[in-house]
UniProtKB/TrEMBL annotation, chain A:
PANTHER family: PYRUVATE-FLAVODOXIN OXIDOREDUCTASE-RELATED
Listed name of the protein: Phenylglyoxylate dehydrogenase
Coiled coil stretches, renumbered: none
Annotated ranges, domain Pyruvate flavodoxin/ferredoxin oxidoreductase pyrimidine binding: 33-234
Domain Pyruvate:ferredoxin oxidoreductase core: 286-390
TrEMBL record, chain B:
Lineage, opening ranks: Bacteria, Pseudomonadati, Pseudomonadota, Betaproteobacteria, Rhodocyclales
All copies of domain 4Fe-4S ferredoxin-type, residue ranges: 39-64, 66-97
One Pfam family matching this protein: Fer4_21
UniProt keyword annotations, A-Z: 4Fe-4S, Iron, Iron-sulfur, Metal-binding, Repeat
Superkingdom field: Bacteria
Cofactor(s) named in the record: [4Fe-4S] cluster
Organism from which the protein derives: Aromatoleum petrolei
Name of the protein in its database record: Ferredoxin oxidoreductase
TrEMBL record, chain D:
Record keyword Ribosomal protein present: no
Keywords assigned: Oxidoreductase
Name of the protein in its database record: Ketoisovalerate oxidoreductase
InterPro entries to which the protein is assigned, alphabetical: Oxidoreductase_gamma_subunit, PadE, PorC_KorC, Pyrv/ketoisovalerate_OxRed_cat, Pyrv_flavodox_OxRed_cen
Record organism: Aromatoleum petrolei
Keyword Zinc-finger: no
Pyruvate/ketoisovalerate oxidoreductase catalytic domain span: 10-177
Database matches in Pfam families: POR
Amino acid sequence: MTTATLEKAAAAEAPRKQKVILAEGNEAAALGVALARPDMVSVYPITPQSSLVEHLAKLIADGRMDADIVDAEGEHSVLSVLQGGALAGARTYTATCGPGLAFMFEPYFRTPGMRLPIVLTIVTRDGITPQSVWGGHQDAMTVREAGWIQVYCESVQEVLDTTVMAFKIAEHHDVMLPVNVCLDGNYLSYGASRVEMPDQADVDEFMGEKDVNWHVALDPLRPMAVDPLTGGTTGKGPQTFVRYRKGQCSGMQNALRVIEEVHADWAKRIGRSFAPLVEEYRLDDADFAIMTLGSMTGAAKDAIDEARDAGKKVGLIKIKTFSPFPVEALMKALAKVKALGVIDRSVGFRWNCGPMYQETLGALYRLGRFIPSMSFIGGLAGADITVPHVHRVINETEALLNGAAAPTEPVWLNEKE
Amino acid sequence: MSRHTSYPLFNLEQAGVPDDLCPVATVVSPMLPGDWRSMRPVVDRDKCVKCAVCWLYCPVQCVEEHAAWFDFNLKTCKGCGICANECPQRAITMVGEAQ
Amino acid sequence: CSKGALKYITTANIYNEVGDWEDLFAPGLAGCQGCNTELLMRHTLRRVGPDTVLATPPGCVPGMGSVGFNGTTGTKVPVFHPLLTNTAAMLAGIKRQYKRVGRDVQALAIAGDGGASDVGFQSLSGAAERGEQMLFMVVDNEGYMNTGMQRSSCTPYGAWTSTTPVGETQRGKTQDAKNLPLIMVNHRCAYVATASTAYMEDLYDKLDKAIAASKTGFAYLHVYSPCTTGWRFPSNLNMEVARKAVETNFVMLWEYTPQDGLHFTKPVDDPLPVTDYLKAMGRFRHLSPEQVEHIQKKVVENQKFVERMTEHAHVG
Amino acid sequence: MYEVRFHGRGGQGSVMASGMLAAAMVEEGKYAVSIPSFGFERRGAPVVSFLRMSDREIRQLTNIYQPDCIVCVDPTLTKSVDIFAGMKAGGTLIQATHRPLAELALPECVSTVGLLDAVKIALEIFKRPITNTLMLGAFAKTTGVVSLDSLKRALEDSDFRDAGLAQNMTALERGYAEVAVHQIERRAAA
């Protein structure tokens, strides 16, 4: 073996040295995007996403990122530009939140239908009205039935790593769906933390060849009509529609497997692992559990440790992949506990509870068992979810275990503070 | 760009693209609207000077050049009558399809 | 030489040049009998050629089957339905990527007036401001004809549409049309022009200039396109109606470039009275004398307005 | 875990100071998290920023309610804001002020005080009352939890325009050199 091949072999086994920096979540997302080498980003600023696109613009202006940047005149056009780019073969990226996401909805719903692997970071923001420019999951939750993959990050490091992985997941041939990387507005977007930067060469090897428009293209050398009318309400029309819609659903289900594979590959090549679908924390011998999503999880883990020290047999279930909903993985976790408290950072208006809570009830039904449970809603409009808040959740859930009646209404954590 | 004929349409099957991903179409519509017509253009070959005005204004572009006159492809002609109206030689007459 | 003879020669010239170029739409499209839009589309795409990506937002253009139906396509070049709202943005993305990889691909939109002047205006304006390299053609049939002839902001004053009906208290549209091409001039696009299918040599000339301009910037071509169905006139009279619009100055044919400013390409110095145009179709049949007077006044006003712009053309 | 709360006014760079301090701690191989408060950070309005430091990974991404240390980069702020809210007993205050210790009304929880006439020095260096890097120097000297060298490296990595870096280096050094550190003897609680 020559020295070069020896070095190459060694490199394949261990990740290259990673630079340690301090970065806010928005900056980490931008750095993750740069590592994935997109061809095109299109941007429109909105609080609390703005610093993310400012970082992207600077990376491109400094020549540290080779991508075409389109400063479109609004989010609707932002995503439309990227659809065009993807149909011409570009790897594409953008970020938005709240009102911007709402304005984007028309092309947003269409993106998974065209199976375009666009990555869009939602720097989550609460839904207006009431007027708010602060964090909350209401925006991402509101569009959860639009056919995008949605993953939520817990830490700044996870934002960086997941952003790169999102491209790989989206472009997997068994998936071919757009991905939302959800990072909590305020606490993650502006929270600066120590992060390790994967080496570009490691990421390049991880990403492999780019081929985003093998299945559909607007290319004069491959003429086709993209998205013709399906053929009316009778005969083969509805059959055609069903075939494509079912294909979208299959792609979503395939994503559950691919998300796990991509996380495993990332762990192998980059040396950091994250629970891909559902994380279980101190759950194996737990009597009851609390459930979290996003940046609230860190405080919740600290609270769990304290509660454990105080003798409470409590564990934590964190959802990372919210869409597709990881029913099987969640059922496995739920099977271990006898009571459950679910914290949502958004509201499910129809059921008067948190949306993640409502979805979880579906998984419990599949599991075929009834356990007492409660919905907690906190952290709306930038409110903090602190260790004491989580202790309250732990205590009230523990009471269920001891026979207290489960309330039919959610508990609003920040209602009286 | 000097090319004036189309490239072959993409073959999805050959490329191994599943038929449940993005809705696409790669076969040209076989529809021929000639049966929409109630009136049909008839050319007076003696009057036609091949000025191509009928070709210029025919919405379906069904005008065909012959040795000494222009005529119409009746598979696609919808019978709108613009050609008869615009012909400077009055060489085109619209006649009922029943005739 | 007589006007008529000149016309034959020009027509023959166009035919001799492009007559054997392939019509890049399917032979059968479901445009109405005598559809001006279908005529315009076929000439345009033949001229632009096969190294093109064609965007046709919802409206008559895809409505007649250009993006296909039930698994077939109506076009031999790559074609797609953008949303009614995002045509210029999607095309911008496509063109940018081809430019990035060094391929010369023509981005072409054939959009209706509704999708351009109303709900699609934001993306159109944004793309024009950014100088995205494309040819954006608007087929102005003065309303949402594909969906049953509803009013658009390009619908002229007094016109009947299904949403500006003729009744006891209201008789057609009560507002004047938005002048979209002049708004595009104020974006300082690389090229802006108005055209009519009744003046095909002028249209072909402008197509050539627009294609050339779209290599470096945003080219906008606004074509007045009478609708036999929505405007209520016999299909064989389409060219006559289109011609009358120009001869009465109801529409004006001009072009603009940042270098040379705005100038008329078919100036009409001695226009026919606007009634010659109005009476050619059913959508204006109900007009009161006052309404006709308003329209005639607006025609003169618009003509003067554009004329003043031609005078200011060379300030730069 | 060591927790710091920064108080300042919009435009004085207290959020940036919190970030640079966190970067300096990361330089030293520690874990650090800096979170700004989320108000309307208009020029002049009171703003808060939070910093956590630990030898282990920090999981909590929340505001700080019981700080070990308070850095107040503005001399007038104590009139409008209760900067000591929730402060732990035996805590440290780094205060920009021209007053001597005896003139300050300090609560029982404060044990260590670093005082710096930061506005005066800032006017000398920047011709404007930007006190944030001065106060970082004062923080390093008073607390000893971060070294001056690490702060210098964090400054070098920051995005200063033109002469900004040199001026801020001077400010950092002068803050470190000129801060007056006091230990307050507290009688043990009865």
